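go over this chain:
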Amino acid sequence: MTNLSDERDDVLAAQPRAVRVGMVDDHQSPVWGIERILERQDDLDLIGSAATVNELLEQTSALDVVILDLRLNDGTTPRENVNRLAELGIVTVVYTSGEHPDLLRSAARAGALGVVLKSASEDEILAAIRAAGSGEEILTVEWAAAIDGDPNLDAVDLSPQLQRVLTLYASGGTSISVGNELGVAPDTVNEYLKRIRQKYADAGRPTRTKLDLFKRAVEDGWLPMPNRGQE
């Protein structure tokens, strides 16, 4: 004779688990909006929100999808935030007003699944989160534009060491200070910088000056976009 309790447990086990959603935005009103949209959805569960990725992960890393604002006040870049989440098996949906195409391209290169504008309808937002929860890319006009819209921004692949040299030097460091930071000689730093400049030149994105290096580092997400009023 079949136990009714066992049957009920089998039915519950067969039901798909709700997608576990987290949100990172340093303004509270977008979070409230997403909370309102998701509270009526049985298959989507908003289980945490924070102003930074690190703060969210301190709450929980048991997440399937993170809705990520691109421009955060902690100075992190979209690339490093998407990569940080990806290391934990968490996919990212960019949630933005869309006025920073360079940041969108950075997120796209890092592997975010797509972008949803903050002006999108509830149905569009829900469809995007559900698609991401299934591991599907979110195909929108904005995402296509972010990936393909600027043929001059061909991605440049830098090793972790070259990334570090670029960010330190472009942030105002010298060959000596960068060498001290990395434990290498200044001549080695200069050799690294030659390799970086050559890689950008090969991609059709010359870096003749230190300012050029700073711009490339921002474009490719190695450095955060400066705040308004900042050079």
Observations:
- The chain has eleven helices and five strands.
- The radius of gyration is 21 Å.
